[in-house]
Amino acid sequence: MVKVNGNYKSLKQNYLFANIAKKLSDYVEANPTAKIIKMGIGDVTQPLPKVVIDALVNASKEMGVKETFRGYAPDEQGYAFLKSKIADYYKNNSNVELSDREIFVSDGAKSDVANFTDLFSNDNTIIIPDPVYPVYMDSNLMLGRKIQLINGNDINGFLPMPTENLDGDIIYLCSPNNPTGAVYTKEQLQQWVDFAIDHNAIILFDAAYEAFIADPDLPRSIYEIPNAKKCAVEFCSLSKTAGFTGTRCGYTIVPESLMADGESLNKMWMRRQTTKFNGTAYIIQRAAEAVFTDEGLKACRTIIDYYRANAKIMTDTMSKLRIWHTGGFNSPYVWIKCGMDSWEYFDALLNDINVVGTPGSGFGRCGAGYFRLTAFNTTENTIEAMDRFSKLFK
Ligand code: PLP
Fold this sequence. Notes:
By secondary structure, the protein is α/β, with parallel strands linked by helices. The mean pLDDT is about 95. It is built from twelve helices and 15 strands. The N and C termini lie far apart (about 65 Å). It folds into two domains: about 140 residues, Aspartate Aminotransferase, domain 1, CATH 3.90.1150; about 240 residues, Type I PLP-dependent aspartate aminotransferase-like (Major domain) (Aspartate Aminotransferase, domain 2, 3-Layer(aba) Sandwich), CATH 3.40.640.10. Bound molecules: pyridoxal-5'-phosphate. Pyridoxal-5'-phosphate binds next to helix 4.
C-alpha cells in the first residue's frame, strides 16, 4: 500500500490570504460602494519596462525562425549572456566577484529556496527567524526537520542575532525581510557569518528585496561580508527587482569555495539541478538580460523609487501618528505595531477606513500584535490610505 509523506500532516494550513480574501469579499458584498484600498498582498503592480518587453518580443520571434530557434539550453544553469550580466551586477552593486560557475539561473527564488533543502540530511537543526517568509519553515517541516525559531521583536528591531546558547546547522536569513522590512547591517551579518563558521553551519541568505536598499552602508549581498563565501548561499529574484512575479526568473549563488560535511555544495547543487531541472525559458532569460542593461536598470530603478516613495509616505504617517514601525525606507514593507490582536486590527481597518493589510500573526508567532502594509500600490491610493489612517488614529 502506498504511504504518503506523513510530515505533510504537521503543516499548518495556510489560511492567511484565503481568510483575507473571504473577509474582503463578505465586506464588499455588504458594502458594494466602499472604496477599498488594498495594501495587503506583496505583489508588484507596475508593468514591465519597455526594454524588457522588447527583449521578450525579439526572443519570441527568434523562436519562430529555423536559424535562431532554441531547444534545450547548452547549460541548464543559465545562458552565458545572462550569467555574465548577473556577475557584472554583483561587481557594480556590491563589489563582489562571481565566476559564472557560481551562478545558477532559475524560475524564481521560491523554488530554489525550497529545493536547496534537498542537499542536507534530515537530522540537521534549522534556525529560522520568526516572523518570516513561510517557505523556509514549511519546506523543512515537509522533511520532518527540527526547527529552532529565533524571535524578532520591537527590542531587536525584528533582526534576531546569534546568542551564546544558539545551536543549529542551517540558518535562514532574509534581508530586507519579508514581512518586517528590517535590514541587517554589515556588522550584524558579520556576526552571523562568524557564528556559521564557528558552528560549521550554512547560511541560506534570501536577498529577494535587495534592490530596495537605498542606504549605501547596508549590505545588498551577504558576500559583502568577509568569509561569507565559506558559509553562505544567496538566493535572489527578479520578481521585486524588475516586476517579474508573473514572468519568473531568479538566480542562486553557490560559491565554489563553499563546503559542508566535506562536500562541495556547488557541485551538489549542480548535480541536483541537472537531475531535476531543465533550465529557465530562453525568452525569459533574454528578458532578464534586458533588466541588467543600463536602460533596464534605469527603468527598474524608476519603478522601485516609485514604490519607495509610497513607503516613505507610509512611514512618515506612522511616525507622525507615533505608531511603532520598522521597514519602509529600504523595503516595500512597513511593519507596524497594532497594540491589539492582528486580526482584530485587520477587521478594524477594513470596517472603519476600508484599508486592507496583512495580519502579522500570519508570518509566525512573533508577528502577533503586528501588521504588514505594502508599498506596491499607486501613490494616489497610498496617500488616500494614509489620510484615512491619520483621521482614524489622530
Ligand atoms: N523570498 C522572499 C522573502 C519573498 O518574499 C518572495 C516572494 O514574495 C520570494 C522569495 C519569492 O520570489 P520569487 O517570485 O522569485 O519566487
